[in-house]
Amino acid sequence: MSILSVRHLQKHFGDLKVLNDIDFEVQEGETVCIIGSSGSGKSTLLRCLNLLEMPDGGEICYHDKNIMEGHIDLNMHRAKIGMVFQSFYLFNNMNVLENCVLGQRKVLKRDRKACEAKALELLTKVGMEKFVKAMPSTLSGGQKQRVAIARALCMDPEVLLFDEPTSALDPEMVNDVLNVMKGLSGSGLTMVVVTHEMSFAHDVADRVIFMDKGVIEEEGTPEQLFDNPQKERTKAFLSHEK
Ligand code: ADP
Ligand code: MG
User: Fold this and answer.
1) Would you indicate the residue range of the signal peptide (predicted)?
2) What's 107's domain CATH number?
């Protein structure tokens, strides 16, 4: 079953066509990796999926309902389609536990006890349970990103979007975050991951999408896309990534 289904998606910034007729589906339980050069529109596509950007045309259906039409509760939508950013965006004025409690209180209206129990459960899942009282400024990048992942998971998302979650990390921390993501993928969470980590995409993705200049140039299984790319642009991109 498709959770997300994008048809003919268009997005411009002024004269610049950033997404040009994108068709894209995400099935329940899938991990989809999106690769492509800087500026190809990957972040804009993710941002459209949770309506941080408003597309100019086409449709985005979430469980067969076009979210670009009629009223939608943006906070609830962003809880259900969570996002993890390259630069974490933790709330720096509150500790790790409160970071994980706030959205649950405000958007899901859970009582504090339930929020704290959920936060502790998810912080344990990402290996950050010892840091509940820590302020974000005292954490390493890898630790911050694991908290950001736990915070997103506290909202019981149906889909988690990751926008280059390891690109801002020191190399020795990249694997801590990738291993958490691998675990989530294995446990059946539906994920869309923009990444430059080709070996992660190769090993973990069910499907890989190569974007170039605002279009989906090629897509397939990791074996098809990495081992037997069909398009010249895909081949050229992959040869630079090696
Ligand atoms: P990627 O994530 O693949 O690097 P982006 O989606 O960030 O690509 O950007 C695609 C293009 O859109 C780039 O040329 C970028 O400069 C441009 N762009 C992105 N966001 C904006 C914006 N808010 N205003 C104007 N141009 C933007
Ligand atoms: Mg980007």
Assistant:
1) none
2) 3.40.50.300
